[in-house]
Amino acid sequence: MSEVYAARRERLRERCGSGGAALVSRPANVRYLAGAAPGGAVLLVGRTEDVLLCPRPPGEEAGLGRPDEGLATRVLDTPGGDAAVAGAGQAVAQAAEFLAVEEHHLTVTRHRALASVAPRLRLTDLARGVEQLRLVKDEEEISCLRIAAEIADQALGELLESILVGRTERHLALELERRLVDHGADGPAFATSVATGPHSGRGGHRPTDRRVEEGDFLSVCLGASYRGYRSEIGRTFVIGTSPADWQIELYDVVFAAQRAGREALVPGTAYRDVDRAARHVLDAAGYTEGLAARTGHGVGLEIDEDPQLAPAAMGKLDACVPVTVEPGVHLPGRGGVRIDDTLVVRCEADGGPELLTITTKELLAL
Predict the structure, then answer these.
(1) 3-state secondary structure of 299
(2) S-S: 207 plus which of 45, 67, 118, 169, CB 3.0-4.6 Å?
(3) Is the pTM here over 0.90, yes or no?
């Protein structure tokens, strides 16, 4: 992997131009380029040497990764010091003509501190340069995402085999997160959402003490983190009895919207057209109120990355970009349906979009 990280840093160096250095502070970006992102660490992609600067010696904590062995790692002399400020000092020592920083991540206070420690060093904005490099995943990254998806599928599948009536949303969410770790995850990719009855179908619902009742819709959204890479899956079920007619109708519409979004995942398709494909199905069925602002988003070292599959999103899909497709409808006071998959955009010659989360999307009565 050392060669992979070195190649990534070289691509960033080329993007910045000759004569300068880049200071990477956003943790996911540091990990992408250095193999690990210890707490408070920054990465200097320098003129003569790349350096990972850490406030304390890097540990072996689960899920945090291991620094690239080919990368110089330096621990700050002063406890509690700012690694970004130390990085600016290193850039000066390497005679950098300018320093590109992640202004979207640095606070104003830290930006001023960099300017004060290196007043002759011109600060420029790296913007979202590293995020753009991270957009298309290599096969090693996709392999990690595939395993993260398998873990989430396993955890969800086991939950479906257990008794659910009478248990609270909060208890079910905690059990799912325990099962993720039991199956080898670093931890949950995000806070697990379990929503029952009138709560079901809400995006990002925070579990409560409401208990599962017969006849409820049950919406579950969870994900696993594996070696830093994050999956996402969402499913909706009916509890205890055969679904009512309105539940079948609503489920079929959301399922059709999700399928339309998945089928639109073709290299060269505009982000907004993926959203439009799913949204058109919901609009045509009369569900125009309260829809989510987007149909999906990228996943990787963060659970919410570019691209954004939204009505106003700019850009087109590339192959080997992992995304979610997650339409949903919530009817106030009744509940709703969400269906969410993680997929990788693939060319038609490679079989089309690769579905990573494979738990059945059939409307089951549990």
Answers:
(1) coil
(2) 169
(3) yes
